[in-house]
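Progress against Task 2.4 (sequence-to-structure conversion) is shown through the following example record, which the project officer requested during the mid-term review.
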Amino acid sequence: MPRITPFLWFDNQAEEAANFYVSVFKNSKVKGMTHYTGEEPVGTKGSVMTVDFELDGQEFVALNGGPRFKFTEAVSFVINCETQEEIDYYWEKLTADGGEEVQCGWLTDKYGLSWQVVPAKVGEWARNPAGFKRVMHVVMPMKKLDLAKLQKAYDG
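Structure tokens generated for the chain above:
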């Protein structure tokens, strides 16, 4: 059991969003749902209240809690990618149907959730201040990251 489970608040798209995320990430599944009973101060009796799902081993819960809260860039999920093909895949899937490219490998999906699609090597690069500084100069104007350009910058 994971000790920390991200809990995502949606207006009324929890089931739709969970199914979307499960379709994007390999080794993922919807694990269960709860429904409103009609006793709660929000939600319609019988409608989906929560969806438990797993994305490649990480558990999440999505809640249909109404329009009170929205996602912001203050919280994002990082996808560490080994190849340019992985970067391209996640970028395409998560920006589809209304998602938005942001900057520096960040994007917002169609539900407003922020993601960082980055090379897995970022942690390694960060341990070399000179190389990382060169990488960051190349990253700043990019939206979707280009692994070959970043590696070339790191190598100097």
